[in-house]
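Usage

Read records sequentially. Each one opens with the input sequence:
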Amino acid sequence: MKHVAKVANVSTMTVSLALRSHPSIPEKTRQRIALIADKIGYRPNPLVSALMADIKSKRSKPSSTVIAFINAHPPDAHWRNLSSLERLRNGLAIYAEKLGYSISEFKLGDHGVSEKRLISILQSRGIRGVVFTPFPSSETRLKYDWSSFACAAIGYSLYYPHFHCAVNHQIHSVRLAFEELRNLGYKRIGFAISSTDDKRASHNWMSSFLLEKHNAFENKNELPLFLTQDWEQQKFLTWFRANKPKAIVTTNSELQELLLSGGIKTPDDIGIAFLHLFTEMKNCSGIDQNDERIAEAAFDLVIEQLYTNTLGPVTNPKIVLIEGKWINGKTALATSH
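and closes with the structure output:
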């Protein structure tokens, strides 16, 4: 770096800032220094870079070690959303503390502050790292300038602007659920999902199911599909009686109650595998999406941007997929079906 500074006739600090694209260095100067560095073969030592970043983080003012946790859900949101948010929040807080950071939660929207006001608060407190939790609506669009922040989203619900994101590996979750049900002996497995849930997952639920259906067709084992915009009781029970599945993979955490309303008991009459197990779903079979690990991955995406000073929206987001794990429960048991 000293060699580059000497050739460019600038200070070593200027070279350091220029090579990290720091806005305090004019664009023309950054380009000139980058060309010189490339010409003489400069390459940063990743171990030294990591060490200096760590030293810098310890010298920074306290606000620089705070990561914002943005929650847009109302306090009276559905219990599933609140349950998932709690796991994400706890996972992020524990992981951040291990690495010398802390989190500060901010409410966004009708039950909190406006987006414009939130940006102002974060800037005034010197908070540069932001994790967006899943939004209540899919394809959510933010309106203001987030170019001063290192941001990561959890899930696909934030449609614009584009940030790196961490999410459950939904394609793997569907595949795992079908595999485990087959291992339990189920042979005719249905798939029940709302179009809203599929849209929030960027259609990964349906993509994975269609592959399962294709493979099942080759094995002459049809998989019935219930895709709906609502969970109207009679419509679902009509589908169930017409298709007679022996087990169901679903995103509907309340499917047990819906079946019971029609006199269908779990697991005596039907096995159920849920694609997202929440804390309240005791003794249910299905996929633990590993919310805590998803939050950790989002945190890592934010810190990576802070270390490299690459802030704001990105053109080609990095998507980190976290695999869930199968949980044996009482809604799907070994069977000869």
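Summary fields computed downstream for this record:
- The longest strand covers residues 66-71.
- The two ends are 69 Å apart (CA to CA).
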